[in-house]
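Margin note: ligand = flavin mononucleotide.
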Amino acid sequence: MQDRFYPDVIHYHDRTKHHYHRYARSAGRMDWKNQPVPFRFYEDTVREPLPFLQTDPAATHEELYRRSNRSPAPFTRQNIAGLLELSLGLSAWKSLGSSRWSLRMNPSSGNLHPTEAHLVVPATESLQSGLYHYNSLLHTLERRALVSPQLWEKIESHFGTGGFLIGLSSIFWRESWKYGERAFRYCNHDAGHALAGLSLAAGLWGWRFRCLNALSDSEIEIILGFDRTKWNRLEAEHPDLIGFVGSQHATDISRAVPERVLQAFGNMSIDGRPNRLSREPVDWKIIYDTAEATRKPHTEEQRYSYGRQPFTGQPESALAAPAVIRRRRSATAFDPDAEIDAGGFQAMLDKTLPRDGCPPFDAQVGEPFLHLLIFVHRVKGLEQGLYFLLRSPDKMQAVRDAFRSDFLWKPVSTALPLYLLQTGDLRYESTQVSCHQEIAGESAFSLGMIAEFDAAVRLAAYRYRQLFWEAGMIGHVLYLEAEAQGFRGTGIGCYFDDPVHSLIGVADHSWQSLYHFTVGRPVEDPRLTTLPAYHHLKDQRQSGKQQAQRTTL
Ligand SMILES: Cc1cc2nc3c(=O)[nH]c(=O)nc-3n(C[C@H](O)[C@H](O)[C@H](O)COP(=O)(O)O)c2cc1C
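Resulting structure:
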């Protein structure tokens, strides 16, 4: 039966398409006076500064995706801090003239970072069991509620093993300030990147992030205390998802939270006032309407099976896993002559395939709906042209039926479901469809993530958000894989939707492009100065001035 909100999803999606003759609605200028504060603070809370990693966990690049047999690390303040540092912490500061801005381990459209993280952690040697918000600027937990030992016991007995919860949420205004109506898409891409970052980094401690895929948005709001938070107008956090982080060896972890535990969360009193982000947030109404239309109801717990196909052989990276994570950046320009070799190219694509027991997709948000339409520009050993990576093999017939009938569908390798559709130099076309951005044509390859859209959202409108999460997760893997091989990637949220669909011969909503990505040899901008991620805390931590940080307008 069609979801009653399906027409709302289609309305939003079509209205926020960029066209050659018209971009999706936005303010059309940067209202600098109204620029949102890029960090969320909860005022009047107990702040728990987190330690920084003295030594990164020892793990090879491959172990990001292939779980080693390592025993799970204990759930200490130190280890939880390490996970946060390597997934959502700052990665550097950049400066140019008098401007200075921070970057994070997770990328974000326009570097606006609408994604927030909240944790429910057990008591550790120096932390009380509670609900905390992670403040990445200060690398600090802000305590929103204490969780009683009795409640924690119930949580642990429900999951049958030790661990903790991490929830993600989005502040739409952070993103709509710059991107207007299309921002809802970007917030969800960003949530997907954050989720992948958490899922991949958790493996380095022998943990696994499992999405509690039964939870409704209302249940998430109860657990994270959002229903008892007094939000400033248009600055509320919208619930995305909650994951349980536990031992990677634990089996049969529940993907739900029992009613009695929910009730206990609902009875907790919540501390902290969210900081005000802007003087006058603008009401991009369609975003809030679409968020409402795509709210997730409670659903049956799901276990997804993605198969166990072996990884293709891959070039060893000289970089260890944490080094790859720390180096991740977006390229702003590429060397237009640089090539990547076919083996490296295929190894990158291979990591985007979901596999049982392999991060990040074993977080199990849902079934895979996205595939990759690849513009190969400079891959040594491969003809220039248009290629397709089929991420779930059973979709072959559906894609072939929907796409242009003159595509070749010629298999490229026995190890990977990669097909040549047509040969030719598509550097111009790929640049054009990615909002004329040169990074799409001057790279070694760029791509569009094509979703089996109608099949996903017609029956369940909430899946609209999950499609963008999946896109963000794929993008995150590509970012890391590019770094691991000495290349660099960039997520591309600005593209012309329907011209991409015309390229593949699709004129309806059966298949839609939801995110673009590009990979090549980066050209650095020599004007930028780089500063260490947490240099700003060094003095504060020493003099205990952390509480005095300017947190609001
Ligand atoms: C969803 C998403 C969309 C993006 N779209 C573009 C884009 O269209 N063009 C571009 O140059 N960069 C794009 N970026 C890259 C961001 O600008 C970049 O992540 C941000 O500036 C932070 O820098 P970093 O990735 O180096 O940490 C995008 C990133 C994300 C996550």
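The mean pLDDT is 96.
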